[in-house]
Design brief:
Layout (H helix, E strand, L loop, with lengths): L1 E6 L5 E6 L4 E5 L22 E9 L2 E8 L3 H4 L3 E8 L9 E8 L3 E8 L12 E8 L3 E5 L21 E10 L1 H18 L27 E8 L3 E6 L7 E7 L8 H8 L18 E3 L14 E7 L4 E6 L3 E8 L3 E3 L4 E4 L22 E3 L2 E11 L6 E5 L4 E5 L3 E6 L4 E7 L6 H4 L12 H27 L4 H12 L21 H4 L17
GO biological process, one term: regulation of establishment or maintenance of cell polarity
GO cellular component, one term: cortical actin cytoskeleton
GO molecular function: GTPase activator activity; myosin II binding; syntaxin binding
Length: about 525
């Protein structure tokens, strides 16, 4: 069945795509066609339908772009857009380059963009970029550079590339701090993204005050988001119309969650350019886009952020009790993380943590480019999620609160100043996951056994009554039983055992009274 067709630029030929994953080139001048150019690109096994196709021939070669067509058995669940480029007009596999753009959300549509320069010939317009619209994001591929990198989006950036777990709004950020963030983001973009001019020139983009247009008197507002995959992203919220992506911090680089992912993060241009494409893989997939709803480890999720807009210092708190201080550094460096353990509950308190463990720390040196770099590392024990955090650059301390207590930490000297547990002795067993919420007079095992015995007796008596109703011959047996019942029972009757449950005097709020939800630093002035 026919799915879609596309005319070539010469107006004489067109290409059609079908529901079996094949496409065919036709000539409008021929009355009868033999289908000799039929091609199943990712065959010979059954393939999914090609939903849309584009065909263009110019002096730069031939481009065939289509959505779908993957082998049904192996990659039927993937959302892809394939780009096939033949340098010469002859359809030769030796001169062919093929890349399959792999998306994490459903592809809605794609649109090629041609160069619109004045000196370009209308009959030989060059293919400049490819715009792909997915359900969760929009991706623009630069087809003029040989490695086909992505463009950095000036608008419509994917805010929820990973689920947002925490956010902080920072108004009136100092201009020098804002400039450092922008410069760090630009340095990151030069490696990851295309350096060409944004190909879409329609509409009027709002001026966010970046680059050469930064005004010293302009107010800069930031939105900082923490995500489930351990990333922290900076957004320019100075305008009322849109958010502009600025910069990303990857905290997962510090941990041994997945070595392959750490390699990709350290070489962040791997998934955005084609220099490292594995030509031996077929189909040649390349991961594109920013949307990735899956996380390798839920312990990486960011729970708290504390950013000082005056000094440019950022404190990050995670789900597994990790706290990291990031500061600006204009030079690239290598860092070996050394986490300082702070035990809020001592071992002598007979507390046994039954939750998740700490994240394994990487022992090797980790490369960090210019920008935010980690300077202090803290691991809270028990490794529960950080529920409150505040930083004071004046005192150079950070306060951290969890469900078990709080601590005051000096991040310049790497010293713990105050450690206080808020757990009551009566709540220790419940906090570690023990069964102390209900006080019972009998053990649970014995009570459960007696409950099953009572249930069995009630069922047996009910079955006897049903048998007697259906069988009249049982009347004599019933009369004999009645005579026996009139005889005084020498055995003391068994009283039903009831499980007494004491009324709880503690509410859920009392059980969670140890959790720290808010910490704040108060200043004072000493008068002599």
């Amino acid at each position: 069945h026919l799915e879609h067709l596309s005319w070539n630029q010469n107006g004489n030929d067109f290409i059609s795509c079908h529901n079996d994953g094949s496409y065919n080139i036709w000539s409008a001048k021929q009355e009868h066609h033999d289908c000799k150019n039929f091609k199943l690109h990712y065959g010979p096994f059954p393939c999914k339908a090609i939903k849309k196709i584009f065909w263009n021939s110019s002096s730069c070669g031939e481009y065939i772009i289509f959505n779908g067509g993957m082998p049904r058995a192996s990659y039927g669940d993937k959302e892809t857009v394939s780009i096939i480029h033949n340098v010469q007009k002859e359809n030769s596999s030796a001169n062919e380059r093929n890349v399959v753009l792999d998306f994490t959300s459903k592809v809605v549509d794609f649109l090629p963009i041609f160069s619109a320069k004045e000196n370009d010939d209308d009959d030989d317009m060059k293919l400049q970029a490819l715009v792909v619209l997915a359900v969760e994001e929009i991706v623009v591929i630069d087809l003029q550079q040989p490695d086909w990198p992505q463009f950095k989006l000036p608008y419509l950036a994917c805010l929820h590339s990973s689920p947002i777990t925490y956010s902080q709004y920072c108004p009136d950020v100092k201009t020098d701090i804002y400039n450092r963030i922008v410069e760090s983001g630009d340095a990151e973009s030069n490696v990851k993204y295309s350096t060409n001019i944004w190909p879409i020139d329609g509409g009027v983009a709002a001026n966010t005050g970046t680059g050469s247009s930064i005004n010293e008197n302009q107010h800069h507002h930031l939105l900082i988001t923490g995500h489930e995959d351990g990333t922290v992203r900076f957004w320019d919220s100075s305008t009322k119309s849109s958010l502009k992506y600025l910069y990303t911090i990857h905290t997962s680089k510090l941990f041994n969650v997945n070595e392959d992912d750490n390699i990709l993060i350290e070489n962040e241009d791997h998934d955005l350019s084609g220099e490292d494409d594995d030509q031996s893989e077929w189909p040649p997939f390349r991961k594109v886009g920013q949307f990735d709803p899956y996380s390798d480890d839920p312990r990486l999720a960011i729970r708290k952020l504390a950013f000082c807009s005056e000094q440019g210092i950022l404190a990050i708190g995670g789900t597994a009790g990790q706290m990291i201080i990031f500061e600006f550094n204009e030079k690239a460096t290598e860092i070996s993380p050394n986490f300082i353990e702070i035990r809020i509950i001592e071992e002598k308190d007979s507390f046994v943590w039954k939750g998740h463990g700490c994240l394994p720390v990487r022992k090797s040196n980790i490369k960090f480019s210019s920008g935010f770099q980690p300077t202090s590392f803290v691991q809270i024990h028990p490794p529960a999620a950080i529920t409150a955090m505040v930083i004071s650059t004046c005192w150079q301390v950070v306060s951290i609160g969890t469900a078990h207590g709080f601590t005051l930490f000096d991040y310049t000297k790497n010293l713990r100043l105050i450690v206080k547990s808020t757990l009551k002795p009566s709540n220790i067993s419940s906090a570690m996951g023990g069964d102390a919420l209900i006080s019972r007079r009998k053990s649970f095992k014995k009570s459960l056994r007696e409950s099953f015995r009572r249930l069995r007796r009630s069922r047996s008596q009910k079955s006897k009554r049903n048998i007697q109703k259906n069988n009249p011959s049982m009347t004599k047996i019933q009369e004999a039983n009645n005579r026996l019942n009139r005889i005084p029972d020498l055995i003391e009757p068994i009283k039903p055992v009831e499980r007494a449950i004491e009324v709880m005097t503690k509410s859920n709020e009392d059980m969670m009274s140890s959790m720290i939800n808010l910490v704040h630093h108060f200043g004072w002035v000493q008068i002599r």
